[in-house]
């Protein structure tokens, strides 16, 4: 099993806008072989930003990598650049192989 996470630093006061973007987007994940589940996580806030993370679980790293090369991935991320002022920099990807 493989877990893929992206960490997002979101501008203070823009948390609701960020959540709305994720609630309203078409993910196309259910079309992808090897996809298991997805969660959007809200973390702590500090004086600069609020931390969020997307968390998806896959059958394998290969299944996740196939998703990143798929038409479903392109469709899901087609409008990713249209949210100026919400994101404080690009997301930080972290991938994990499940050991136990």
UniProtKB/TrEMBL annotation:
The keyword Cell inner membrane does not apply. Residues 2-96 form the ABM domain. GO terms for molecular function: monooxygenase activity. InterPro entries: ABM_dom, Dimeric_a/b-barrel, Heme-degrading_MO. The keyword Nuclease does not apply. SUPFAM superfamilies: Dimeric alpha+beta barrel (SSF54909). Keywords: Monooxygenase, Oxidoreductase. This is Antibiotic biosynthesis monooxygenase. It comes from Methylocaldum marinum. The lineage of its organism: Bacteria, Pseudomonadati, Pseudomonadota, Gammaproteobacteria, Methylococcales.
């Amino acid at each position: 099993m493989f877990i893929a996470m992206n960490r997002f630093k979101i501008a203070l006061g823009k948390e609701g806008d960020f959540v709305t973007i994720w609630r309203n987007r078409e993910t196309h994940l259910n079309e992808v072989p090897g996809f298991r589940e997805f969660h959007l996580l809200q973390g702590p806030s500090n004086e600069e930003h609020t931390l969020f993370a997307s968390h998806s679980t896959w059958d394998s790293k290969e299944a996740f990598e196939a998703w990143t090369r798929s038409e479903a991935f392109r469709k899901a991320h087609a409008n990713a650049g249209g949210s100026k002022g919400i994101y404080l920099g690009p997301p930080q990807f972290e991938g994990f192989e499940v050991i136990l």
